[in-house]
Known about the structure:
By secondary structure, the protein is of the alpha+beta class. About 15% of the residues lie in helices and about 35% in strands. It has one domain: Penicillin V Acylase, Chain A, CATH 3.60.60.
Amino acid sequence: MCLIVFAYKVYPDNDLILLANRDEFCSRNFKLAHVWGKKQRVISGIDLTANGTWTGITDSGRMAVITNFRRGLKIDLERKSRGKLASNFLDSEVSALDYLAEVRKSKGDYNGFNLLFGDSKDLIWYSNVEDSYQVLTPGIYGLSNNLLDVSWPKLEEAKSKLNNLLDQGVGNPEQLLPIMLNKERYPQSKLPDTGIDPELEHALSPIFVDIDSYGTVLTTLIYLSKHSVKLIEYNHLDGSQQLSSCFSSKLFSFETGLN
């Protein structure tokens, strides 16, 4: 379960500003953001269980983010890893539109997902749940565990706060990060019915999820402009908001372990 909000071609210094929370079981092993790839210089974390990724960029301006679609808790364990959809696009040279065609052909091989991905020409959202896609136009968008911009309380709040800050000319990570750290739970009457127990629905309702063995483990900020690519990652597993990694293509530098 995850939450993504992003501004596409609405901020003067960046074509894309994206904020993403990764919600996961705390015991699931993963590698923090690092440089990898054969065809591209990819910057992302890697899930060590299924070897895919959840959020990543390349220094050529490709990006991909994926979320699960929540319809109850049951999944088909025989289906392919959804995270590979993101990592396969990142480490390739295929255009976003051509990759969309490929993914649509194999949509039944995966449990429900949302894939947000793009290159220098197009930014695309696709979900296999209804075989729906959009080639996005400028605007502010939100994506959680339903289709694009479906109005969940946490999604609307995060979008509104991002919009307000960008209207004020604020785009720096220190002021945008708090958007993704709100642990407030919303009233049951405002929550969607996604086929899970109402108490669990309530526990999963905040922007920042914090349950005993499950919750928001990472926050990632991505900035893409015509001249630079930047990814900033914050690790929450130790109970702090420590900066774990930062990458900028302008300097072609990658640093980890920043505290």
